[in-house]
């Protein structure tokens, strides 16, 4: 069977895994580089989370390190679960109150985060539990 376009499904899943990991790493790196970790910590504290600043740094560090680890193909299911949970919390606390659309009719809505959540769940559900790179992205 010919593949469209150019790659087989399992290969596209690997591409998606790498891009998701790099996306998360970029998200954390940008937050740290721009200097908004303190603001994020303040938001978490104001929302009712204890130790907001420590939590913000933990999340940022997890995004950076975990993103690169995910892109490399290690701890795929665990990291996808962590990042999926993070997106659920982002949807609940930030995006859903702003509506559905990210841009256009509304700003900051949930649509992009919902898409990323589904992508993390897809990658996790199609990856065999193993520590070997040979099975990462392998379908069941």
From TrEMBL:
Its main location: membrane. The chain crosses the membrane at residues 12-29, 103-124. It comes from the Bacteria. PANTHER family: INNER MEMBRANE PROTEIN YPHA-RELATED, OXIDOREDUCTASE CATD-RELATED. The lineage of its organism: Bacteria, Pseudomonadati, Gemmatimonadota, Gemmatimonadia, Gemmatimonadales. It is a multi-pass membrane protein. It holds the Pfam family DoxX. It comes from Gemmatimonas aurantiaca. This is DoxX family protein. GO terms for cellular component: plasma membrane. Belongs to the DoxX family. Keywords: Cell membrane, Membrane, Transmembrane, Transmembrane helix. InterPro entries: DoxX (IPR032808), DoxX-like_oxidoreductase (IPR051907). It is found in: Cell membrane.
């Amino acid at each position: 069977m010919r593949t469209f376009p150019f790659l087989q499904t399992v290969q596209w899943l690997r591409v998606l895994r790498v891009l998701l990991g790099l996306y998360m790493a970029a998200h954390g790196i940008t937050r740290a580089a721009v200097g908004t970790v303190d603001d994020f910590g303040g938001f978490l504290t104001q929302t009712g989370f204890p130790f907001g600043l420590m939590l913000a740094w933990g999340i940022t560090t997890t995004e950076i390190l975990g993103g690169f680890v995910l892109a490399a193909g290690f701890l795929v299911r665990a990291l996808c679960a962590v990042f999926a949970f993070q997106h659920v919390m982002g949807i609940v606390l930030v995006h859903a109150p702003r509506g559905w659309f990210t841009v256009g009719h509304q700003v900051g809505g949930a649509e992009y985060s919902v898409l990323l959540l589904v992508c993390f769940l897809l990658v996790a559900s199609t990856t065999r539990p193993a520590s070997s790179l040979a099975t990462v992205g392998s379908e069941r």
